[in-house]
Design goal:
23% strand, single chain, five-stranded mixed beta sheet, 11 helices
Length: 297
């Protein structure tokens, strides 16, 4: 909750004095707490009161950008690291008194966090085929642009120097995707929709099974490829733009091209939408990063 335990205890004690009875009690064994019958009776009214406060802050925000408010965002790592910082820089200029808090989670946890109304908006990457399934009764879905994937390696990778499988440069032949099956393929996730999408892409010709290596993070993928000459990395293109411009890594142009992923967002139906959320998603939908990616590749 971002406050000291003693502060919570004092607040609960004041609440119970006002009620004249206990609202919470210890579970047997002393592990955790539970609501008493009085606490259970109070719970829906407490939620209604807190919801009304959120509504009030949103109403003030709709009238003026100077109102105090907060927007809680949950996103996967690549979105949080590469797409949100420039977009939130714009938002913080437009909404100087609004606090934008970002939490990082797996794609599954992003959706669950919004469905449970712990966050105002969740943003993550997923396979386009699954995008239509993200909305639920407790969320509203927002369609954002598709994001290309970049398959890359060190400039000294054997495929770039091989005569029978040349690298792709201007006017050069594309690399067949099956040529990559002989090399370890690094991605951030060990499972999930992103992993399944790439597994389907690389096994489409039934010529072999790729050796996927999960590095756990975007930076882990980059460091793995930088440390091993034969390694190949697969990341969202926006995460590779700077390294490709600098020549740290070199991108393959594969035949056929790798699939794109969808930048997807959901908002909590039970929480009032701060106007800044609409503006944030519009900023992401404009995709200014995409033009930089195209120039870099």
């Amino acid at each position: 909750m971002g406050v000291a335990q003693s502060t919570v205890s004092e607040a609960l004690a004041a609440l119970e004095r006002a009620l004249g009875t206990s609202a919470v009690g210890r579970r047997r064994g002393g592990h955790g707490i539970t609501l008493t019958p009085a606490g259970l009776a109070l719970l829906p009214y407490a939620r209604h009161i807190l919801g009304s406060l959120d509504d009030a802050h949103t109403a003030v925000a709709e009238a003026t950008h100077d109102g105090l408010a907060g927007v809680d965002i949950i996103a996967n790592e690549s979105v949080s690291s590469y797409l949100l910082p420039p977009a939130l820089a714009v938002m913080r200029t437009r909404w100087p008194n609004t606090r934008f808090a970002v939490s990082i989670a797996t794609c599954t946890a992003v959706q669950a966090g919004v469905e449970a109304s712990r966050f105002d908006v969740g943003i993550w990457l997923q396979a386009p085929a699954r995008a239509a399934e993200t909305a639920s009764a407790s969320t509203r879905r927002v369609v954002l642009p598709e994001v290309p994937l970049t398959v890359f390696a060190q400039p000294s990778h054997p495929l770039f120097a091989s005569a029978d499988a040349p690298s792709v440069g201007r006017g050069r032949q594309a690399t067949d995707r099956n040529a990559l099956l002989a090399f370890p393929l690094y991605m951030s996730d060990a499972a999930g929709d992103f992993h399944a999408l790439l597994a389907q892409y690389f096994t489409a010709d039934a010529l072999g099974t790729p050796r996927f290596e999960a590095s756990g993070s975007i930076e882990g993928v980059k460091q793995s490829v930088a440390s091993f000459q034969r390694a190949v990395g697969i990341l969202p293109s926006y995460a590779m733009a700077a390294e490709l411009r600098a020549g740290t890594f070199r991108a393959f142009v594969l035949q056929p091209a790798p699939p794109a992923v969808r930048l997807d967002a959901v908002t909590a139906s039970s929480r009032p939408l701060h106007p800044a959320i609409h503006e944030l998603l519009e900023e992401l939908a404009r995709g200014p990063t995409q033009a930089k990616i195209s120039r870099a590749v």
